[in-house]
C-alpha cells in the first residue's frame, strides 16, 4: 500500500505550514519535490527551504526531486490539461515505484491547499501501481485567498452576500457572475478584469503572496486597474514568473470600503 499525503504548504511563508503538515512531512518515507523549470525555480527553492527547516538530516535523505512534465499550450485547453495530468500521474508512479517498491508513506508538498484550483487530487486518482493500492490523505493548507484577505484586512464577502471564486479565463469570457456581490479571481494569465466595466468596482490585488517579494495594490478598479497591469508585467519580467490573485466587489466589504 502507498499512503500518499497531499500537504498544503501555504503560499510562501514557512510559518503558514500547519502542525499537522509538519507531522505528515516528518512521517513520510519519500518526499517528492517537483521542479518546474528555471523560470519558476523559486517554487522548488521554497519547498527545499521548508524541508531543511522542518526535517532532520536523516529525513532530508528521503527527499527526491523530479522534473514536472510541461503542459501543451494547444487551443484544446481541457484536452491539454487531461493529457498533462496523465503525464504527471505517470511521473509520480515512476518515482514511487523506484523509491518505495514495497510501498510506504509518500508526501507531496502542495502550493496553497489541495482543494482550491489545484489538481493534485485529480492526479492522485489516476495513480495505478501494479500490486499496490493507493490511500490518499489531505492535509489542509492556507490558500492564496486567505493570505490576500488577511494582508488587505478584508473579508471575502459583503455582509450576508455571496462570493464566487472563478478563473481569469471565465471572467474574461463570461463577465461578472450573476448574483455575486464579490468575485475572487485565480489563474488569471493577466488583466482579465479589463473585460469588465470598471464603474462601481473595487479591487484588492496581490502577487507572490506570503513571499518576501509580495506586492499589494487596492482601490477603485477604474483608478488602479491600469497600474496593476503595468506592475504585473514589470514583476513578471523581473522574476521570470508570477502568481497573483485578486478580489473584486460591488458592495462594501467593511464600512471603510466603497459602496
UniProtKB/TrEMBL annotation:
Keyword Magnesium assigned: no
Keyword Protease: no
EC number: 2.1.1.152
GO terms classed as biological process: cobalamin biosynthetic process; methylation
Molecular function as annotated in GO: precorrin-6A synthase (deacetylating) activity
One Pfam family linked to the record: TP_methylase
Tetrapyrrole methylase domain span: 4-224
Source domain of life: Bacteria
Keywords, in A-Z order: Cobalamin biosynthesis, Methyltransferase, S-adenosyl-L-methionine, Transferase
Pathway(s) of this molecule: Cofactor biosynthesis; adenosylcobalamin biosynthesis
Protein name: Precorrin-6A synthase (Deacetylating)
Amino acid at each position: 500500500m502507498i499512503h500518499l499525503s497531499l500537504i498544503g504548504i501555504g503560499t510562501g511563508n514557512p510559518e503558514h505550514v500547519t502542525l499537522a503538515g509538519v507531522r505528515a512531512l516528518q512521517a513520510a518515507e519519500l518526499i517528492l519535490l517537483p521542479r518546474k523549470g528555471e523560470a519558476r525555480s523559486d517554487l522548488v527553492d521554497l519547498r527545499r527551504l521548508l524541508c531543511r527547516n522542518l526535517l532532520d538530516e536523516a529525513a532530508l535523505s528521503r527527499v527526491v526531486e523530479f522534473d514536472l512534465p510541461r503542459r501543451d499550450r494547444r487551443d484544446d485547453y481541457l484536452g491539454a490539461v487531461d493529457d498533462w495530468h496523465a503525464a504527471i500521474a505517470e511521473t509520480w508512479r515512476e518515482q514511487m515505484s523506484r523509491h518505495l517498491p514495497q510501498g510506504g508513506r509518500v508526501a507531496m508538498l502542495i502550493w496553497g491547499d489541495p482543494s482550491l484550483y489545484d489538481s493534485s487530487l485529480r492526479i492522485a486518482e489516476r495513480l495505478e501501481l501494479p500490486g499496490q493500492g493507493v490511500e490518499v490523505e489531505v492535509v489542509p493548507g492556507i490558500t492564496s485567498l486567505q493570505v490576500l484577505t488577511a494582508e488587505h484586512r478584508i473579508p471575502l464577502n459583503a455582509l450576508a452576500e455571496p462570493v464566487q471564486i472563478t478563473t481569469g479565463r471565465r471572467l474574461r469570457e463570461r463577465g461578472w457572475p450573476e448574483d455575486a456581490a464579490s468575485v475572487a479571481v485565480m489563474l488569471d494569465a493577466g488583466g482579465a478584469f479589463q473585460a469588465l466595466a470598471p464603474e462601481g468596482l473595487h479591487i484588492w490585488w496581490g502577487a507572490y503572496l506570503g513571499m518576501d517579494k509580495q506586492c499589494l495594490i487596492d482601490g477603485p478598479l477604474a483608478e488602479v486597474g491600469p497600474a496593476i497591469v503595468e506592475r504585473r508585467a514589470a514583476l513578471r519580467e523581473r522574476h521570470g514568473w508570477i502568481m497573483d490573485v485578486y478580489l473584486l466587489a460591488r458592495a462594501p466589504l467593511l464600512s471603510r470600503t466603497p459602496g
